[in-house]
Amino acid sequence: MLSSVVTRYQFILEHHMERSLVTCAFSGSHQDAIKKGFAAQEKRRQNGDQTWQIPYLTLDPKDIGRNYEAVIRVNSQSGKGGAAWIVQRNLGLDLPKAMQIDFSSVVQNNADHLGRELKAEEIISLLQRHYNVDNCATDDLNVKDYNFDKKSDKVTDVNAIVRLNGKEIALHGKGNGPISSFLNGLSDAFGVKMEVESYAEHSVGQGSTTKAATYVKISCGDKYKWGIGMHESITRASVNSIISAVNSLIKAGALDANKVSSSEHALRKFAQKKASANL
């Protein structure tokens, strides 16, 4: 080994370990650098530059029969970049930096509990269950119907019907857009103030299969939760991300599902809508 020649110290390392870990990164800082390197590499390739330039990877793992998913190994000591890279490679979701930190703690706790590295499919399953991506978890709150009415450039009304533990609740809210109006409607229904602390969005896929992915951080008192929403409609994706975060707040005890009231205004609006549809 070159290291033995340079240091005059005899390193003992099994050959199968050398082969299996040659393109692997365990360090959080290395994983962050590799994640950013792959993003930069993709941009260069779109401009016709095929040069391989990834930090800490002097060769393309595919050239020696390895796949990219095996590059980053995630355990209880891994940083935020490793899990985020796996999510981006598999689902196309580019988690905001603050959300990467939130999710990494979930991943680390799970890896610590199991006492081993987590596989890519386990990390994906954790994300889907923790943030209820595509309704993978059984939740208390779900959306049945909604209608946004833009009154002006600064005012949007919403009337919505949600199901909470099997019971239908009517919401009415006002805000400067769909997100704030829908959340204000939920705040009124629960009788507590919830606020959007952070929001991000991007597209996933191309052409007719393109979806919107939205991320929202919602606070209620001294607690906050992140939510993820995906849908062909950016508005519905935003609604889904709010529902995702509010469900997490319910599970955390920040919201009492037993103290929810319907909006009489919304009930009247939906009654009128139903009557018009039957004419």
Automatic annotation (TrEMBL):
GO biological process terms, semicolon-separated: L-leucine biosynthetic process
InterPro entries xref list: 2-isopropylmalate_synth_dimer, LeuA-like_post-cat, LeuA_allosteric_dom_sf
Coiled-coil intervals, chain numbering: none
Origin: domain of life: Eukaryota
GO molecular function: 2-isopropylmalate synthase activity
Domain 2-isopropylmalate synthase LeuA allosteric (dimerisation): 117-250
Signal peptide: none
EC number: 2.3.3.13
The name this protein goes by in its record: 2-isopropylmalate synthase
PANTHER family named in the record: 2-ISOPROPYLMALATE SYNTHASE-RELATED, PTHR46911
Keywords: Transferase
Keyword Transferase: yes
The keyword Nucleotidyltransferase appears for this protein: no
GO cellular component: mitochondrion
SMART domains: LeuA_dimer
